[in-house]
Amino acid sequence: MTAKNMMPYVEGNSAIRAMFEEGARLAEKYGKENVYDFSLGNPSVPAPAEVNQAICDIVREEDTLMVHGYNQSNSGYEDVRQTVAEHLNKLHGTSFTAQNIIMTVGAASGLNVAIKTLVDPGEEILAFAPYFVEYGNYAANHGAVLKAVPADTETFQPNLKKMAAMISEKTRAVIINSPNNPTGVVYSEETIKALAKVLSEKSQELGREIYIISDEPYRELAYDGVEVPYVTKYYANTVVGYSWSKSLSLPGERIGYLVIPSALTDFDNAVQAANIANRVLGYVNAPTLIQRVAARCIDCTTDIGAYDRNRKALYDGLTDIGYECIFPAGAFYLFVKSPLADESEFCQIAKKHNILVVPGTSFACPGYVRIAYCVAYDTIVRSMPAFKALMEEVRKMQG
Ligand code: PLP
């Protein structure tokens, strides 16, 4: 008998599976090129050539027993962690060493390790809506409770007033994500400073640490030179989760890291706990070959120009038709106001036009839909008449 605990996930998953199946069915019926699938955050730009070269070079040049073996430390290769630390110091003027870095199985495992390390069962984690749907599951994995801070739909910057009102003696952490999935918004320096101020005051008032867990898989996907503030510089009790899934287009390779700054309260215990969490959660260590690849490719970046072109084409095209949304400064998503109050109904009608998008309810923000523009440019161009026909149909429904 499958654990009862898992049945809500099984039931919830059928909606996602239904979306996949619908996509496949539509592709079969109308031809793949006539289906506009904007549902997944899977990078559309191939990994840089340096990555493939590094894989070949490493297996040729390095000791394969070591390259494919267990890491001596569950935190990962010491030299890789030192390379990551120095890279961050060069970019952000920080002073990390290998001791501050724990290699993880992508951002997903990094978040689980961070929560297991910092949050006790029954404690609360706040997240600003709209947020990545898995946060709730990750919190629940460790007996923690995720609470959604309602969105500020004017700016999609964190709603700090509402957050302050929700903080209690149970609050242990706040998860932030910038550049943001699903809005593409980048949190400004002003926002990060204000967030740090509120959390410092509340920590003081309640006599307990409230940590920031900064989820940053889209850090490098920021357009027009917009600054993405490095959060540890503004708030000591910050753990950063990073991943190369998007920045090097390696989501299947499962590679990322956590940064645990020395200034974090109870640093020595925290860093040991994270090391152990990596083991006891069953990750053991981050994939070893790809750790070495990431270190060799530490200065590589993806072709952000391709996403930028998609961003502009989609935003201009949709807003010309009459859709409303914030112009995203980062990531590869557009969070569009649903022209129908019930965005799930809108998503269903979109499917009739061969357009697949994700309802905002999946991000704790109903009334919006997420459009992932990590697709071929051509898909965006060809989808425009379908988006136009969709809007016309909705307008007719509204009389
Ligand atoms: N956090 C956010 C906001 C994401 O969008 C994703 C993946 O889409 C993840 C975390 C998980 O990333 P990873 O593939 O590195 O586990």
Q: Alpha-carbon distance between the termini?
A: 51 Å
Overall helicity: 40-55%
Strand content: 5-15%
Largest sheet: 7 strands, mixed
How many helical stretches? 13
Oligomer category: single chain
Radius of gyration: 21 Å
Helix/strand order? HEHHHEHEHEHEHEEEHHHEHEEEH
The geometry reads as globular
Q: How many strand elements? A: 12
Q: Low-confidence spans: pLDDT under 50, at least 5 residues?
A: none
Q: Structural class of the helix and strand makeup?
A: alpha/beta
Q: Mean of the pLDDT scores?
A: 96
Q: Which strand order spans the largest sheet, edge to edge or round the barrel?
A: 2-8-7-6-5-3-4
Listed once per kind, the bound small molecules are: pyridoxal-5'-phosphate
What descriptors fit this protein?
399 residues, alpha/beta, three-stranded antiparallel sheet, 12 strands, 44% helix, 13% strand, binds pyridoxal-5'-phosphate
Protein model, in words:
The chain is of the alpha/beta class and 399 residues long. It contains 13 helices and twelve strands. The strands form three sheets. Strands 2-8-7-6-5-3-4 form a seven-stranded mixed sheet, sandwiched between helices. The longest helix is centred in the first third of the chain and has 24 residues, at 7-30. The chain starts with 6 loop residues before the first helix and ends with a helix. The model has no long low-confidence stretch (mean pLDDT 96). The structure holds pyridoxal-5'-phosphate. Residues 41, 106-108, 132, 177, 181, 215, 217, 243, 245, 251, 256 line the site of pyridoxal-5'-phosphate. The site of pyridoxal-5'-phosphate (PLP) has 13 residues, from helix 5.
